[in-house]
Design a protein that fits this description.
The chain is 0% helix and 68% strand. The protein is globular. The two termini are 23 Å apart.
């Protein structure tokens, strides 16, 4: 049996962005728990004792060693030969999606990876110290998602950004299932009090899916929604190495940027609902 479980906790302050991944993975008798941290300039991975880890069966809570996260906030405490991390970040009220991110797909067995969104946006405060570097998050904004299953998709595109009252989280992947492969997408857009979702299981279609650009549509004519996401800077700008699951083992190397320049445009028919460019966008593209 092979599986993994992890939460991705993004903290964006006025100057800095840090993402922390709480995770654990099992493959046969091999079990590992870990904390991964990615900043604009570096990434870190600290492996810890699997027996000293915990995931709540209900609600949002996970512990790895002395590191803990729940709906109230996150505490980090790593003191090893190669890495020293301390800090506490408090969370405000979560902006949750309406229902399970996987929709009806959550009932399908044998899915390679299952996605979840914990909070599209919430206020944060506090700081994290990594070595001698201090990252402050007072009056900042947070985002949290999670994944579980056996492996990340062989090919996928993922991006997330908060811009004022607008929150966008989108993923697209080539999904294997029972001998077939299909393009699947899940996109969440919160703005002006609305919670919109473009997803394969709701009839959304992927029109373009390349390393630097993703275009998703849903509907027709004047009611046709279109989301265009395009990375405007160079390939792998600010991208840092992270470990990802492949068959339950954390031995795949991917690259993530927590501060990439990305343009987001969302239209309905001929009307532009919003368009913005963020230089603090999270971004990943991977293809094996």
């Amino acid at each position: 049996m092979a599986n993994f479980f992890g939460y991705y906790v993004k903290c964006a302050g006025k100057q800095d962005t840090v993402a922390v991944i709480f995770g654990r993975a099992t493959c046969g008798k091999e079990k590992t728990a870990f904390i991964q941290i990615v900043t604009k300039d570096n990434s870190y991975c600290e492996k810890l004792d699997f027996k000293d880890s915990f995931v709540a069966k209900r609600g949002f809570e996970m512990r790895v060693g002395r590191n803990h996260v729940n709906e109230q906030g996150m505490v980090l405490d790593i003191d090893s030969k190669d890495l020293r991390v301390t800090g506490e970040v408090k969370f405000g009220a979560f902006d949750k999606i309406k229902y399970d991110a996987m929709g009806p797909f959550k009932f399908l067995p044998f899915m390679e990876c299952r996605h979840m969104v914990v909070s599209m946006q919430h206020k944060i405060s506090g700081e994290i110290r990594i070595g001698e570097n201090v990252f402050n998050f007072d009056d900042g904004v947070g985002y949290i998602e999670g994944d579980c299953g056996k492996s990340f998709p062989k090919k996928y595109f993922w991006s997330q950004a908060n811009h004022g009252e607008v929150s966008v989280s989108v993923s697209c992947a080539i999904i294997p299932y029972l001998g077939i492969r299909f393009k699947g997408t899940i996109c969440f857009i919160h703005f002006e009090g609305q919670k919109l979702r473009l997803a394969t299981y709701l009839g959304a279609r992927v029109k373009e899916f390349i390393e630097s650009k993703l275009v998703i549509t849903k509907g027709r004519g004047g009611k046709r929604y279109c989301l265009e996401i395009e990375a405007l800077d160079g390939r792998l700008t600010n991208a840092r190495s992270l470990l990802a699951p492949d068959g339950g083992k954390m031995n795949r190397v991917i690259h993530e940027s927590v501060e990439r320049t990305v343009n987001y445009k969302f239209t309905k028919g001929t009307e532009t609902l919003f368009e913005f460019t963020s230089n603090r966008a999270a971004f990943e593209y991977s293809e094996m």
